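Hi R.,

As promised on Friday, here is the backbone we talked about, encoded as structure tokens. Could you run it through your design pipeline when you get a chance and send me back a sequence?
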């Protein structure tokens, strides 16, 4: 077992580079952006997002409509960010399953995932491996992505989300979900040495 700082890394026999399954990430843009915009506009109306002051009779109605449109656009932008993270999380969760299968098929890796053997790796070790490898994510936070996928089995339409969730709550909810999931792995968890694994990200 190698120890670097406060982190422990499992030892893998040999020195060859090990190929892991490709991480497949599907695009997260909805097919009908016009429908998404319509739903966002309804959310603005239903959540009373326009301050009462703007509804005063002395306020230009065009300014009110412009403010509503700006809010709807911001909601859509946040929703697209949610979709991008969720699709990354969905790809990572499936990739972890494939990696577990790969480990089971390779004698030198099989014991690394057994909690009765120490040092061992856990499912969260694969997430840490992606972070250590600095895989290109185009700004997607990997832990948040996994947390959102753990929270939502499928992507909900924007009309089912509150403005509070899209603007403020999704980060905290995703973090809580991820850390609750990672804490389910029996301690102590060791990391996978990034220099021993090759990971390819394929955007679908």
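Update: got your reply. Pasting your designed sequence below so it's all in one thread:
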């Amino acid at each position: 077992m190698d120890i670097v700082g406060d982190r422990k890394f499992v030892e893998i026999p040999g020195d060859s580079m090990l190929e892991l399954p490709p991480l497949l990430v599907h695009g997260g843009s909805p097919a009908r952006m016009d429908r998404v915009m319509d739903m966002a506009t309804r959310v603005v109306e239903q959540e009373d997002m326009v301050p009462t002051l703007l509804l005063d009779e002395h306020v230009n109605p065009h300014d009110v409509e412009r403010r509503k449109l700006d809010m709807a656009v911001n909601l859509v932008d946040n929703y697209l960010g949610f979709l991008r993270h969720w699709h990354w999380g969905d790809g990572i969760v499936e990739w972890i399953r494939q990696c577990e299968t790969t480990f089971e098929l390779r004698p030198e890796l099989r014991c690394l995932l057994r909690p009765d053997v120490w040092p061992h790796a856990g499912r969260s070790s694969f997430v840490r491996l992606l972070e250590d490898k600095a895989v290109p994510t185009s700004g997607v936070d990997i832990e948040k992505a996994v947390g959102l996928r753990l929270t939502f089995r499928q992507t909900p339409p924007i009309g089912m989300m509150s403005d509070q969730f899209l603007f403020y709550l999704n980060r905290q909810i995703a973090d809580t979900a991820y850390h609750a999931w990672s804490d389910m792995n029996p301690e102590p968890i060791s990391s996978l040495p990034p220099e021993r694994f090759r990971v390819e990200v394929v955007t679908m």
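One thing I noticed while checking it: The mean pLDDT is 87.

Thanks again,
M.
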